[in-house]
Amino acid sequence: MRPVEFRAMGTLLRSLATAGLFLALFAQHAAAETVFSFRSDPQDYVGAGQTRRFTPADGNMFMEITFKKVIFNLDSPSGYWTAAFSAPNYSDLVPGVYENAERFQTPGNGGLDVGGEGRGCNTTTGRFVVHEVVVAPGDVVQRFAVDFVQHCEGFAPALTGSIRFNSAVPLPSTQAPAPPGVPVAPQVQGLWWSGPQENGWGMSIVQHADQLFAVIYAYDSAGAPTWYVVPGGTWNPQRTIFTGTIYTPHGTPFFAYDPSHWSVGAPRGTITLAFQGSSSATFDYTIDGVSGRKAILPQAFGRDGYTPQAGLSDMWWGGAAQNGWGIALLQQQSVLFSVWFTYGANGAPQWLVMLDGVWTSPSTYEGRIYRTNGSPWLGVYDPALFRTTNVGSFKLRFVGDGAVLEYSVDGHIGSMPLVRQAF
């Protein structure tokens, strides 16, 4: 897929968990907790190579906000710890993935600074994922959930940790007590494809900690656009191979959507992604008894330009009232590449590509919507059959913690609120 992180299906995750098909990270029965845990690599200065876990029984834990920076504090007999997180460009911290975080923020990057017991970094690099942040009037933090990876002074050893403050978001499996050096999942969020020799199809991967949410954008036996969703899975112990189950839900047309008629459907098969770091992977699949293998790599589509907002890559959806569809939004520099996975007039899965966009204001990104057709994907793919059709336009308006999608597609005009989906 040439430019021509899907944030959807929160209830899909919960439904699959109920059916025993997918272990949702947000189990509804989970109790809120307050905890600070980390695992430190050997030679990491801040954590000194230790694995530690703190709860309120170990000291006073509290939150504060200073100049948009959300700060966790732990005052314990062993010493004082702080962990500070901030969004790019002095904006409010919202749920999402923040890449290229650093202690002294440069424009467009988030802020990250974790230290304690007299140990800290002069400079930091890393990333963090905010799963939940709820702030009451007066900058009172009511709930907060974040996972982070921090490197001191640009060195490789990492401090990998999690903070939960009055939050029911479970700790990721990589934060379970483990010896130092336990592998951490590579950072693979992005739009993946097989290169120009198979132009026309692709896969979005949105990553929260060690969980992946993948959507494959392909074509059915008639060459019409269809999609397959992999709403989670498991890693091998080395965190190099990810395996998940494939589903093809059905619903009602996007222009008259009724979530009561949405169906997950039976499993269609499995995928296995064997990552060679963050820059390439081998993609094996079995769908309806048809197996195949493809070499894939992340696609570069960004360009320099006016970039009033950063950190927008994620899965976005319309909330529980619109369960069943979503938008994978992936950002590189000034460009937002969005794929809307939804349903056509017959209720079958279809996807629409939103690109050719520009920032027309600090909060508005707008461009064209395309529908694509191509070679049947299960089998030998023929890129010569790839076609694009301009079917409308879109505007994405980012307001506070959420967004609004305004669209015109095939003569249908609509507007839908969007929020980030935690998984």
Short overview:
The chain has one helix at residues 10-18; strands spanning 33-40, 51-54, 60-66, 69-76, 79-86, 96-102, 111-116, 124-136, 140-152, 158-167, 190-193, 202-208, 211-219, 225-230, 234-235, 241-246, 269-275, 281-287, 290-298, 314-317, 326-332, 335-343, 349-361, 364-373, 387-399, 402-409, 412-420.
Report on the architecture of this protein.
It is a single chain. About 0% of the residues lie in helices and about 50% in strands. A 9-stranded antiparallel sheet has the order 14-13-12-11-19-18-17-16-15, with no helix packed on it. It has an 8-stranded antiparallel barrel with strand order 20-21-22-23-24-25-26-27. Strand 13 (about 210-220) and strand 14 form a beta hairpin. The chain folds into 2 domains: about 35-165, no CATH class; about 185-420, no CATH class. It has about 425 residues and is mainly beta. The protein is built from 1 helix and 27 strands. Keywords: Signal.
Q: Any chance you could write out the topology, listing elements then pairs?
A:
Layout: H1 10-18, E1 33-40, E2 51-54, E3 60-66, E4 69-76, E5 79-86, E6 96-102, E7 111-116, E8 124-136, E9 140-152, E10 158-167, E11 190-193, E12 202-208, E13 211-219, E14 225-230, E15 234-235, E16 241-246, E17 269-275, E18 281-287, E19 290-298, E20 314-317, E21 326-332, E22 335-343, E23 349-361, E24 364-373, E25 387-399, E26 402-409, E27 412-420
Antiparallel strand pairs: 1-2, 1-10, 3-4, 4-5, 5-7, 6-8, 8-9, 9-10, 11-12, 11-19, 12-13, 13-14, 15-16, 16-17, 17-18, 18-19, 20-21, 20-27, 21-22, 22-23, 23-24, 24-25, 25-26, 26-27
